[in-house]
Structures are given as structure tokens and as C-alpha cells.
Amino acid sequence: MPATETIAAVRLKPGQEDRLRAGHLWIFSNEIGKIEGSVEPGCLAQVFTAGGQSLGIAFYHPNSLIACRMLSSQVEPIDAGFFRKRLAAALAYRQRMCPGETSYRLCFGESDGLPGLVADRYGDVVVLQIFAAGMEARLPLIEGALKELLEPRGVFLKNDHRQRQLEGLPGECRLLSGAVPERVAISEGGLSFLVPIGEGQKTGHYFDQRENRAFLRPFLAGRTVLDLYCYTGAFAVNAAKSGAKSVLAIDSSQAAIDLVRENAKLNGVGDIVNCDEADAETVLQSFAAGSQPFRPDVILLDPPSFVPSKKHLLKALRTYSKLNSLALRALAPGGLLAASTCSHHVGREQFLDMLRHAQGKAQKSARLVALRGQAADHPVLLAMPETEYLHFALLEVL
User: Fold this and answer.
1) What is the distance between the alpha carbons of residues 159 and 150, in angstroms, rounded to a whole number?
2) In this predicted structure, what is the pLDDT of residue 103?
3) Which of 98, 230, 275, 342 is catalytic?
4) Weakly modelled stretches of the chain, pLDDT under 50
5) Strand 43-48, strand 273-277: pairing
6) Could you confirm whether 230 is annotated as catalytic?
7) C-alpha distances in Å from residue 4, one per residue of 1, 7, 77, 299
8) What domains lie within the chain, and their CATH numbers?
9) What was the pLDDT predicted at 5?
10) How far apart are CA 363 and CA 366, in angstroms?
11) CA-to-CA distance for 126 and 148, rounded, in angstroms?
12) What is the per-residue pLDDT for 316?
């Protein structure tokens, strides 16, 4: 380790090491028996079993429920070389999984061995989100590694997520280096999209649904499609380009609606994609009641995460169930519902149970055509179920 950095020692309580040895990367505060040495948020700590065996090195935070985030099972320098090596491996993986693409999630935190770091690549622009104090303290090393690997035109810091509060980190959005336009143009599956960086949701684009958008294409030709929570219109434009007869895109944000119109025109489907600034639940209620002038053949329902923490889970599941129940009621036999949730607090079985409840409430019967997850650039770490957060189901009403 660098001579200037003092490493604390974290000793676990007896029997707490099995999960870590299996590959999980978090240590919770109630699993720690003893701390030795001076500590501060984001400092490095060597982790030991109760019997004194080394388990590796981690970021330590004295005031966080996730007290340690494992960086390596070895005791190695967490320096410029470490970040260059991990980010190079992450880049190589994306180049294998997303051949020909230049926009994708470059780093997905724990799944890439860099807990608390998200990096999205938009061609020659990189947008960062940091969720751990240890990563925040090493931002110059991260930026340096990115410059070596990608030579980006600009790097933008999008640190406005409420999760940062859990580590005592302030919210901020700012240019880190170079030049980043307000919007960037990206290509996805042969389509073009304008993506807002500073003012957009998350880092600007939902790469996690890319493969699900491509999967849906064969189901949409000749269909009337309702796209709810449409944001930039990635699903809506994909539907229109796949031969949908018409698409109605709904979002509560006028800025999002304006961008959908732009993206539809950019792809030559401005006459197929119609947009409306409205509340998704209200729109679903009107379709379920049959008070709209048409009945959709396909409903795309990709709501935001309603689960900021585990204590909100039951309320969120009720909300998801209500929305999906309304959607099923709005569909005739043969109609398709593409339903998603995007919170790691909602497991796959909970997602399916929610859909079963929604089906019963709607007094409909449906078959599960497909059950899918997040795109390959959001890899799931097998030992960490928390890294699997996106669930996607395609249902056909019977």
C-alpha cells in the first residue's frame, strides 16, 4: 500500500465470513466485531475473520449500514494502476457484449469490482455517478484511468442520486473535465437518440432496457402501442421503427415529451409517434374504463423505482400491482403487456407475485411469454443478488 496511507483493520464477528468468501462484496455494520486504527468515511481497511485470517481490502465507512465495500480479496495498492486495470477489464467486457456499440454502461459498480462507481459511455463523453465515499475520495484516479483508456472529449459528474445521502455525500452535477454538450447523440440498435446529460434522468439514457427493446421488435408490427413513462422515447421509437401502426407516448414531463417528438422525427417516425404530457395512472384508468377512442394492442409499462429503501417495498408493490392491473384491464385478448420494475429491493419472485396479483385484480388470464432482465452491460454478480435489479415480463392476455 502507499506509504502515506494508513490502513485500518476490520475484524468480523465469528461466522460472518462465509458470504464474503462466496463472493459477496458488502459487510454490514452489525457483522463487525472490532475496528483497529484510525478511520474516516471512505478510508481503506484490511478485513480479517474473527480468527485473524485476511479476507482482503475494502473501503470502510464508520457511519454507513454498508460498513465495508470489498475491493479485492488480496491486499494490493488501491492506486492508479488498480483503477486502470479494473476499468480496462470493464471496457473489454462491454466490447465483447456490445459489439459495434460506442454507448453503454461502462462500469456497473460491484459487478465490475468497483463498488459505488457507475460510468456510462456516450461515444466520446463519459458520465459518472458515485455512491461511496471511498470512490469519491479517489475521483482523480478514476478520471485519470478513463482518460488513458478512452481519451474522452469530456467527463461529467452526475451525483444527484438520493442514495449518496447514505454515505453523507452531497448532491452535485458538474463538468469534471473537457467539454460536454447539454445533449449528446447516440446510436442504439441502428436508431439515433438525443440524450440529455445534465438535466436528464440518471445519467441520461436507460441502457439497461436496450436488449428488451430489441426483443420486443418482432411483436409490434401492425400494432397500436401505448408507451407509459416514455422519457426520451426509446421504447416508442423502437416500436414505430418495428412497424407499429401507431404509438401513443405518455410522460408527466413536458421536457420529456418534447424530446420524444425530436427523437421520433430524427428517426423518421414523427407521423407514427404521438405524444401527450399526462399522468400515466390517470391515462391507464381511462383506457381500462374504455373511455378512450381506441384500445391498445400493446402496453409498455416501465415506471420509475418506487422503492427508495426496503421499508417502502410493500407500498411500492401495491402501486406496481395497481398499474399493471389497469394495463391488463385495458387490453383485449391477444393484447401484450411489457411490464418492468427497476429496484434491487424487488426480487424476481416478488415481481412475478405482483403480476399474479395484478392479473387476479383485473379478472384477466395471461400467459408469460418471456421473463427477462437487464442488458449485458449491467452484469449480475452471481454472489450478489443486489446487482440484479431490472425485471421485465412480456404477458399475453388470454
Assistant:
1) 21
2) 97
3) 342
4) 1-3
5) unpaired
6) no
7) 8, 10, 12, 57
8) 8-72 (2.30.130.10), 80-181 (3.30.750.80), 206-397 (3.40.50.150)
9) 67
10) 10
11) 13
12) 87
